[in-house]
Design goal:
Shape: elongated
Radius of gyration: 12 Å
Number of strands: 0
Structural class: mainly alpha
Order of helices and strands: HHHH
Number of domains: 1
Distance between the termini: 32 Å
Number of helices: 4
Helix content: over 70%
Oligomer: single chain
């Protein structure tokens, strides 16, 4: 049960972080977005996290960041 709880909390933190990443990405504040993405990836560098960040950058219509997080 503890392992599942930890995994759920990790996923929640990554999803929340991706939402915060998307806001400055949409404003083309790329350095701020890269800094935040770096912190998120330091926390969890799984391929699913990279995909989530890339999708957030695509929604923000920021192709530079989309390529950065892949």
């Amino acid at each position: 049960m503890r392992k599942q709880l930890d995994e759920n909390m990790r996923q929640f933190a990554v999803r929340s972080g991706a939402n915060y990443f998307e806001a400055p990405a949409g404003l083309k504040r790329n350095q701020d977005s890269k800094d935040l993405a770096g912190q998120i990836l330091k926390f969890d560098s799984a391929p699913a996290t990279r995909t989530l960040l890339a999708q957030a950058a695509q929604r923000a219509e920021n192709t530079e960041l989309s390529q950065f997080v892949k």
